[in-house]
Amino acid sequence: MTEQLDFSALWPHWPELLAGLWVTIQLTVMATVGGLATGIVGAAIRSGRTTWYSRIWGAYVEIIRNTPFVVQLFFIVFGLPNLGLKMTAGEAALLAMVVNLGAYSTEIIRAGIQVTPKGQWEAGRVLGLTRLQTFIRVVLPPALQRIYPALVSQCIIVMLGSSVVSQVSYEELTFAANLIQSRTFLSFEVYLVTTGIYLALSITLRQLMMAAGRKWLGVQA
């Protein structure tokens, strides 16, 4: 028996999908800003001399990169409250995404810094800049330029991974899709439309980030 597809039945539920999409966009923007800032700090720490805090940051990077995102999320949601750190589902989702992106972006940015000629550090000293000023003004911009496409791809991966936060009842796009499917039983239609939304969001995010990279960092297309 052939099943008839009925996309028209989804029209009454578009406000729910759009509300979930808006939550996903907000979560992605905040996680991207927080994760990249964390990655820059971590790359600076990991690129310097080996100290106790660089070892601690290295341990954090290895733990996050070698464990599933869903386990990290569950640890934050269900584990941290046992230590007295209680937060809402939205706060936990944002923290999990920032922590995850921070670890991956640390290594991506560090890779760009490692191939920076030592002469740039020496040039900074000659100009009378402190090590921090040299890092921010001389070393970091070309390093970001070199690894920017990889950084954009990682941000998109984290955005797509945000679908996992529906497991802790955070009402983003996938949560809305699951809710609509449970009410309408239109599994194929709901998830096909949701797939299209994620695809469009990924392409849009990539184009916006690459445009920003070309404008502010001189990244080549």
Automatic annotation (TrEMBL):
InterPro entries in UniProt: AA_ABC_transptr_permease_3TM (IPR010065), ArtM/GltK/GlnP/TcyL/YhdX-like (IPR043429), MetI-like (IPR000515), MetI-like_sf (IPR035906)
UniProt keyword list: Amino-acid transport, Cell inner membrane, Cell membrane, Membrane, Transmembrane, Transmembrane helix, Transport
Residues passing through the membrane, by range: 20-45, 57-80, 185-205
Pfam families xref list: BPD_transp_1
Domain ABC transmembrane type-1: 21-209
Cell compartments where the protein resides: Cell inner membrane; Cell membrane
Recorded topology in the membrane: Multi-pass membrane protein
SUPFAM superfamilies from the UniProt entry: MetI-like (SSF161098)
Family assignment from sequence similarity: Belongs to the binding-protein-dependent transport system permease family. HisMQ subfamily.
Stored NCBIfam families: HEQRo_perm_3TM
Name under which the protein is recorded: Amino acid ABC transporter permease
